[in-house]
Specification:
Blueprint (H helix, E strand, L loop, with lengths): L6 E2 L1 H8 L3 H11 L5 E2 L5 E4 H15 L4 H4 L4 H14 L2 H14 L3 H14 L2 H21 L5 H23 L9 E7 L6 H12 L3 E9 L14 E6 L9 H11 L7 E5 L14 E3 L3 H6 L2
Helix pairs in contact: 3-5, 3-6, 6-7, 6-8, 6-9, 8-9, 9-10
């Protein structure tokens, strides 16, 4: 059963903050920055407050403050100086830390405020590619090292999805400006990782096309409903887990036979499994190494 993580080992703190465990021990011993609890076997355990403090301390330390000076500051002074730094630094420097902090504390308001501030400075595409994508990669590492629980990852992923849905809804209120093709976005059967597909839906809508978003785990046979459409249909999919490497050739052959019989249809594929895709004989099947490459093709 998934349990919300409220205590952290020193290794967890290292992974979350980027500060080495050895350095954390020195700060703790020499400056009394933290007061961890200890297990019966003398293993340090840190609470959420200690983690939050370390994230703030690490930001000051990485921006030129001496640890001896930081140790003498009150908590509100540390928070104020961190806030001042975020105003001066680029979005790439401060937003990742704030998103991680919002995740650890399940703080939706902090996530929303950080996102809205980013949106004033950058396009959503820039935010997704330069901030959310590195964040999700880092979260995968944190989850594998047991530094966060699945609840944390689900929380932050759900908030990102909410923002994309909201932005897409506003775009869909407008009449499509480009009518040369309709994009059908779907994930193959048993594929559930839809964050990248949601991002692509936003980017396609923003460029004035009509989209039909089908989402997770769509059997190939279900897509035959679009064969009778007179307009050009471009199917877009992200192969993250499925179809796996052993089934990719079979999947493409099946898709080509059953769905691409309409000569105006195309299939565009990206995602991790795309690297294992053979060079297609059919010119109406296009493989993109990254989602950014697919977006540039629009």
């Amino acid at each position: 059963m998934d349990r919300v993580k409220t205590s952290f080992s020193i290794k967890n703190l290292e992974h979350l903050s980027g500060i080495k465990a050895h350095t954390i021990r020195i700060w703790e011993k020499r400056y009394g920055l933290f007061e961890p609890e200890r297990t019966e076997t003398n293993i340090r355990l840190y609470n959420l407050e200690s983690l939050q403090k370390l994230l703030n301390v690490s930001m000051l330390y990485k921006n030129g403050f001496k640890i001896s000076k930081i140790a003498k500051m009150e908590s509100n002074e540390i928070n104020d100086k961190v806030h001042n730094i975020t105003l001066q630094k680029s979005p790439y420097d401060w937003s990742l830390g704030l998103f991680k902090l919002s995740m650890i504390n399940f703080d939706q308001r902090l996530f929303t405020n950080t996102f809205e501030e980013l949106l004033e400075k950058m396009s959503f595409g820039e935010i997704f590619q330069s901030i959310f994508t590195p964040l999700m990669i880092e979260l995968g590492v944190l989850w594998q090292t047991n530094s966060i629980s699945p609840s944390h990852e689900h929380f932050i992923t759900s908030l990102i999805k909410q923002k994309i849905h909201s932005l897409c809804e506003k775009l869909q209120e407008k009449q499509p400006q480009r009518t040369e093709a309709t994009f059908v976005l779907y994930l193959p059967d048993n594929e559930i990782h839809e964050l990248g597909l949601l991002y692509l839906n936003h980017e396609i809508l923003e460029r004035g096309y009509k989209t039909i978003f089908l989402g997770q785990s769509v059997p190939t046979a279900s897509l035959s409903n679009f064969q009778e459409k007179s307009e050009k249909m471009i199917f877009v999919s992200c192969f993250t887990i499925e179809p796996n490497q052993d089934r990719i050739r079979e999947y493409l052959h099946e898709f080509e036979t059953e769905i691409l019989s309409n000569e105006s249809s195309e299939l565009w594929v990206t995602g991790y499994q795309a690297q294992f895709l053979p060079n297609p004989n059919n010119q109406r099947i296009r493989i993109f190494e990254t989602s950014a490459e697919l977006v540039r093709a629009l």
